[in-house]
Amino acid sequence: MRYGAKVLLEGSCFDDSLAYALHYAPSEGREFISPYDGLDVITGQATVAWEVLEEMKDEPPVIGRSIVANGREQAVAVRIQDEPGQLGYILDFLRRKRATVLDLRRSWKSRSLISGMADIEILIETEDEHHGQEVLQELAKEARAHNFELLLEAKEPEVRS
Length: 161
What we know:
Strand order of the largest sheet: 2-3-1-4
CATH architecture of the largest domain: 2-Layer Sandwich
Low-confidence stretches: 60-70, 153-161
Number of domains: 2
CATH topology of the largest domain: Alpha-Beta Plaits
Number of helices: 5
Shape: globular
Distance between the termini: 42 Å
Strand content: 15-25%
CATH class of the largest domain: Alpha Beta
Largest sheet: 4 strands, antiparallel
Order of helices and strands: HHHEHEEHE
Structural class: alpha+beta
Mean pLDDT: 75
């Protein structure tokens, strides 16, 4: 406890851990600081992501060959309103459909930061190719119903040896 922090590992998933932390912090007279919702935290995460992207701008992403070979991986891009909760809705939808998010990044190529819209690239893993197509078809329906745009339905990820 060099800096006075106490690390607790509770729950089998993020939702369980979050529920525990939200209960534990007030019971100990402490303040819960979200790893996602604070402006300073978001700014810091964006800064780190920007630095990583700057270092890797000429490097294609490294993708596991076994996932690509069996059709379980899908790259999806969506355009959402840049407002709290919009991305969370899509991520929750993917979780409910049993699609694992492997990577997520905001695309800085096609839109200005001030536009009010955000282009998000999401790399998901599905159970198999058929499940992947089902997830994409249902995501397209959700896009129409919930005011976001599916920019690409599927993309073959690049593999670097």
